[in-house]
Amino acid sequence: MLRNYIKIAWRNLWKNKTFSFINILGLALGMACSLLIMIWVQDELHMDRYHKNDSRLYRVMENQHYVGVINTYASTPGILAENIVKDIPEIQMASQALWEESILFTVGNIFEKEKGRSAQGDFLTMFSFPLKEGNPKTALKRPDGLVISQKLADKYFKGQNPMGKTVRIDNKDDVMVTGILADIPETSSLKFDFLLSYERWQKTNTWSKDWENNGPRCYVLLAPNTSVDKVNAKIKNYIKTKNKDSNVELFLQNYGESYLYSKWEGGKQTGGRIEYVKIFSIVAIFILAIACINFMNLATARSVKRAKEVGVRKVVGAFRYSLVSQFLGESILITLLSLVFSILIVLLILPVFNGLTEKQLTLNFANPAFLLLMIGLAMLTGLISGSYPALFMSSLNPVVILKGGLKFKSSATYFRKGLVILQFGLSIMLILGTIVVYRQIQFIQNKNLGYNREDLLYMPLEGDLQKNFQTFRQELEKQPGIKAVTCSQSDPLAVGSSTQGVRWPGKDTTQLILFSQNAVSFDYVRTMGIKLLDGRDFSTDYSTDTSNYLINEASARKIGYKNPVGKELTMWGKKGKIIGLMKDFHFNSLHTAIEPLILRLERGANDTTNYWGNVLVRTQAGQTKQALASMEASFKKFNPRFPFNYFFTDQEFANLYKAENTVSKLSSYFAFLAIFISCLGLFGLAAFTAEQRTKEIGVRKVLGASVANLVGMLSKEFIQLVLFAALLAFPLGWYFLSGWLEKYAYRINLEWWYFAATIVLAVLIAVLTVSFQSIKTALVNPVKSLRSE
């Protein structure tokens, strides 16, 4: 029996090549898209989940309370770990680690910048970053300890055993290799090629030993069977026991959740990358649903072709369940064929997809779970797409069928139209989403930041440049192609330092207000291209500028100064005056509103103390190449033992929104796929409709109907369905897109023309799809149409 069913199914596929091709191609594209998204989602959900202590591994977070706002940070005091592990018995281990750094490695004649971190002694014991050589319990407990990746071992100690060998760090310190890292899994959000001792870093950063300063991340390993709520209750006011004036409350977040759930508002978790996981999961469901709807519609519409087969089988005693089994089996067979093609499609486009998402995704056929996932996807798709056609055809009355009087009931017709509406409604939502995402990204990329990011570049202020910055600056400004030079402790796109230690006459000292702050050198405003609304920039003509300040409009509003220039301001106990009011400019991500900012002068004109941070250089328009050559020559003169590295501000700005750009590109590709699959179904339905109305079209032509009239008649119904789909899709699209845009402090409005453009595009695509078949049918000779065999 099974063999007979397979034979019948294969004959039907071969007999109706066009409709079989449409069904298989539509399902293959739908499943390929869903499969791509599924392996991406699976990878995202498994990020940081491979650590053996996953369920007990947490990071310490801070809620900082200010006037009317709660800010949440992962930065903590630099001495938190060593204290909290002693004071809280439920914490088995604690370790602090720094942000990623680029540090100069020198071994013999080889010197190059490498990316890595500094971490405390128990870091490798808490996390599952295995070592090929060395002891994870002791490798970082030496102040001069260094753990390197196998890549760095091969690079600097080729053919040698690196253990115990010495590496020069930033031309200042010698450290010893105490461990070699195995490859870090792709599912780790923490990436590094080396680990240095945290104690080494702490010796030169004494501010990290103060409870009022934050910076390093703190990770803790809870004892087995420990209640997280109990620990949270204990550590909530822990900082206040060390600093009674603290406004900080601590809490724990599971480390495995921190990658996906990284966004906080008002002290509560509000999202993160999990939003993209949800969005693309919905997109996968949409596209697979569109493909299944194609199958349902075409199978139901063409049921008249198999009506007699159903009637005969029922007359000779076939039960309904056997007919349902047969038709479901046929749909599963088609789906399995589609699965084969979908895998081929995925294999072809996976390298491009990996390039877009910056991942190393693969189809792991050796993994039983993955094979089950694929087979499960095919079976589910087959059951969903074949369910209604199977139930519909098995319900047909054999008497009516064999008398030749089969007609579709109005309920069946309405259901089929409903499927078309649903199909195009989903496609229209994807088109609208693509337009809005693209417009938002363009808005961000083209927004006036309040300074000129074109022709602006920066490079690390390191090595001998730190003590010779002023001389280096003066030489650079004489070079052709260079307009202005300054330095800044932060890079132009991320001022991460903030303080509550700001006072002014009349301030309520009980109110805590947070200000961003940045230490800069002379000509910062001119180099950045920031507009001064009043006052002046820091100048070498004023020796008192080391205690003066520049503020932005947001600071003036927060302080309450209407005309702030000349007014008194004190920061960290240093009293000075406001010498300039800057127009608000964006010094952080556009996801957040512009915050109050205070600029202070890092060093005086005659101060020989080391500078640190970044050198900022404004080049003459169109002379960047010449300026870079001049910079490199001067750099090698002043800092010969360091490689010349620089960053263009406009390129780094684009990198800030890489995730959004990826979403925009993927959305456009998925929307195209959705429309293409919908059009395949529409084409099939149009062909079937034209086939069913062949004689009617012939009569109309004999009576004088033009080709245009016939095309309009055949297209009208489908256009109406698309318009109705748009009316249903727009409210939902508006609701979800409004929610997505709310995460941006600076965003576009959902303008009417986005919806108008979407509906015009959808109708145009539908008309082009249907018209091809309509014109073909309308041009048929009526003699052939009316001929009766």
Question: What can you see in these coordinates?
Answer:
- The structure is a single chain.
- This protein is of the alpha+beta class and 789 residues long.
- The protein folds into 4 domains: 1-47 and 260-407, no CATH class; 57-257, no CATH class; 439-447 and 652-789, no CATH class; 463-641, no CATH class.
- It is 49% helix and 18% strand.
- It has 25 helices and 26 strands.
- Strands 17, 18, 19, 20, 21, 22, 23 and 24 form an 8-stranded mixed sheet that branches. A 6-stranded mixed β-barrel has the order 4-5-10-7-9-8. Strands 1, 2, 3, 11 and 12 form a 5-stranded antiparallel sheet that branches.
- Strand 8 (166-169) and strand 9 (173-181) form a beta hairpin.
- Helix 2 packs across helix 12.
- It is elongated.
- The two termini are 35 Å apart.
- The mean pLDDT is 85.
How many beta-strand runs?
26
- Multimeric state: single chain
Uncertain segments are none
Q: Note the beta-strand portion.
A: 15-25%
Helix-and-strand structural type: alpha+beta
Mean pLDDT, as a whole number? Answer: 85
Measured as a percent range, the helix fraction is 40-55%
Q: Radius of gyration from the CA trace? A: 34 Å
Outline type: elongated
Q: Distance between the terminal alpha carbons, to the nearest Å?
A: 35 Å
Largest sheet: 8 strands, mixed
Structurally, the number of domains stands at 4
The helix tally amounts to 25
Pfam families: FtsX, MacB_PCD
Protein name: ABC transporter permease
Transmembrane segments: 20-41, 276-296, 332-353, 365-384, 418-438, 669-690, 718-737, 752-772
Membrane topology: Multi-pass membrane protein
